[in-house]
């Protein structure tokens, strides 16, 4: 198993955001995590890549209250539950955050370089850049444009491109389709499929269930912090209750 | 007169730029409003006074040592008085005010309220378009500009500079790029205090050294940062020269009215804010959580 999460529980103050979640991702898979708004999908990713722990550290003693983080996260055979976020990236577990969040005042090139922060001195830096430009030609055209002025779709391409520059073994992508026009959404999903064909394992968090189920091999369904169903996408679709209640199809 | 104003405005602007850029860097990266910033500028000036006048050491050695020691002091202050309460905005603000006052009182206790001075690094004067300008003023201007150019190079072209700018943009996402945000904050603090102490070292021969010498630069720096737009480096740079020249104009055109310089600076700030509330180069802080 590339990623193995067991009994993950996250509470912000008294609110239980994630309740005893276990999931795993095997090498080469594209696994999706779906569920309604507020189910805790983003929090699962944030807990895996150390951002909940970062919150816990930085918000200690503030009015935000106490954060509880329990459970075990194994990546590539190593326990990373106690590893700080900036070291997790080094191991090849890369998180492309919700709402894209490019560094808005930096140019496209600088954003990609920030993604390559840990690999700046490697000889094949330019090759990696070229790979990203081949995947997203629009980024190559806008190299010196300040990223805050890009369109939503372009910012999403940039966020994914930046994540690729961090050289992921496993790429966690959080809601890439949010706020995009239908055509652009399809484009983004096509690119994600292309990235998978490059041999990068992907875990995709989405609300756009119809598109995701077409690509993913397996899926987890999350609702109010719990995993209520999991398995092959086809099997999930056959379950009438799950399909109607949670997938909205 | 015109040349006087020009040279004086350039020097004041450059020194304010050094101070305001340092202040903005830390504000951007760690969300710290460091009121003690100009108190560290004062510390550097006092250290140079001690080195040259009391211990009789060579001026250059004193400058380098003073800058180094001030950075060290700044990092200690950051680690013990600011970092533990960094996320409590009000507490952090009060803590930095306290540190500034503390430094002021310490210098008052040691040196008294006397007006002290330091010899110029170089003597003589040059004549520019018929106006005598001391070489020390030109040296100060030259040094300030060299440092400003180096800072720009550091921020725009180095890996650490990229980490600083990324962290200032979005601390949380910077983590996801493998940047150690705590480490970046320390480096930024060192650069920021370094700029303040360099500013102190550059102007010390031109100003009187006394325990409240940090107040006027503090007011100017805050006005500059608000005028330029909170957290914007370009804004701090441009704002510094605007208020630097404004101050020179007041001092030279109203020989009896130089007490008005703070008032004029703050008036300019208010006028700009009435038209552009986000400042000249307004940056909207990204919502992080």
Dominant shape of chain B: globular
Can you tell me the CATH class of chain A? Answer: Alpha Beta
Number of separate strands of chain B: 2
| Main sheet makeup of chain B | 2 strands, antiparallel
Pfam family, one (chain A): ABC_tran
GO biological process, one term (chain A): L-amino acid transport
GO molecular function (chain A): ATP binding; ATP hydrolysis activity; branched-chain amino acid transmembrane transporter activity
Keywords (chain A): Amino-acid transport, ATP-binding, Nucleotide-binding, Transport
Quick synopsis:
The complex is a heterodimer of chains A (249) and B (289). With 249 residues, chain A is of the alpha/beta class.
Description of the structure:
The complex is a heterodimer of chains A (249) and B (289). Chain A is α/β, with parallel strands linked by helices. Chain A has a single domain, classed as Rossmann fold (3-Layer(aba) Sandwich), CATH 3.40.50.300. Chain A contains eleven helices and ten strands. Chain A has helices at 41-48, 51-58, 85-88, 108-115, 125-135, 137-141, 152-165, 182-197, 209-215, 233-238, 240-247; strands at 3-12, 15-25, 30-34, 67-75, 78-79, 93-96, 170-174, 201-206, 218-223, 226-232. In chain A, the strands form two sheets. Chain A has a six-stranded mixed beta sheet with strand order 6-7-8-3-9-10, sandwiched between helices. In chain A, a hairpin with a 2-residue loop joins strand 9 and strand 10. In chain A, helix 4 packs parallel to helix 7 (152-165) and helix 5 packs antiparallel against helix 7. The radius of gyration of chain A is 18 Å and the shape is globular. Chain B has 289 residues and is mostly helical. Chain B has one domain (2-212). Chain B has eleven helices and two strands, in the order H-H-H-H-E-E-H-H-H-H-H-H-H. In chain B, strands 1-2 form a two-stranded antiparallel sheet. In chain B, strand 1 (125-128) and strand 2 (131-134) form a beta hairpin. In chain B, helix 1 (2-30) packs parallel to helix 5. The radius of gyration of chain B is 19 Å and the shape is globular. The N and C termini of chain B lie far apart (53 Å). The model of chain B is unreliable at 285-289 (pLDDT under 50). The A-B interface holds A 49-51, 54-55, 58-62, 84-87, 89-90, 94-95, 97, 101, 103-106, 110, 113-115, 117-118, 120, 162, 166 and B 86-88, 159, 162-163, 165-166, 169-170, 172-181, 283, 286, 289.
